[in-house]
């Protein structure tokens, strides 16, 4: 029971950061999504050691383990607009493949640059 409450509390911390990002976006009428602002706040708090990794580790781990469930509503929403995608399968396939390769190459280059800095 204690582990459950700890996980819920940690998810609550992450949710508060998300809501703070949403508030900042709404208050200052920013074009950046509130979730991105929330992640930036999280990174700042972690780097400044105002928020310790241990305080959110289990909650974040739980959310990452169950990440596929968070995509289900988005995919269901896409089904409503299937007519938009109808007949565009080939171009969508090209876009998905290109963006996947682009992300893989970029991630690899960033990873290699970090590795070189370590050495």
From TrEMBL:
Pfam families: LrgA. Keywords: Cell membrane, Membrane, Transmembrane, Transmembrane helix. Its main location: membrane. It comes from the Bacteria. InterPro entries: LrgA/CidA (IPR005538). It is a multi-pass membrane protein. One of its GO terms (cellular component) is plasma membrane. This is Holin-like protein. It is found in: Cell membrane. The chain crosses the membrane at residues 30-51, 63-84, 90-110.
């Amino acid at each position: 029971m204690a582990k459950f409450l700890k996980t819920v509390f940690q998810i609550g911390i992450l949710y508060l950061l998300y809501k703070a990002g949403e508030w900042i976006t709404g208050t200052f009428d920013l074009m950046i999504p509130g979730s991105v602002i929330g992640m930036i706040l999280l990174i700042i708090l972690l780097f400044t050691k105002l928020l310790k990794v241990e305080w959110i580790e289990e909650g974040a781990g739980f959310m990452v383990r169950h990440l596929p469930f968070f995509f289900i509503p988005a995919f269901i929403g896409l089904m409503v607009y299937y007519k938009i995608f109808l007949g565009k399968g080939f171009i969508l396939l090209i876009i998905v493949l290109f963006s996947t390769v682009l992300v893989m190459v970029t991630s690899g280059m960033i990873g290699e640059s970090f590795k070189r800095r370590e050495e």
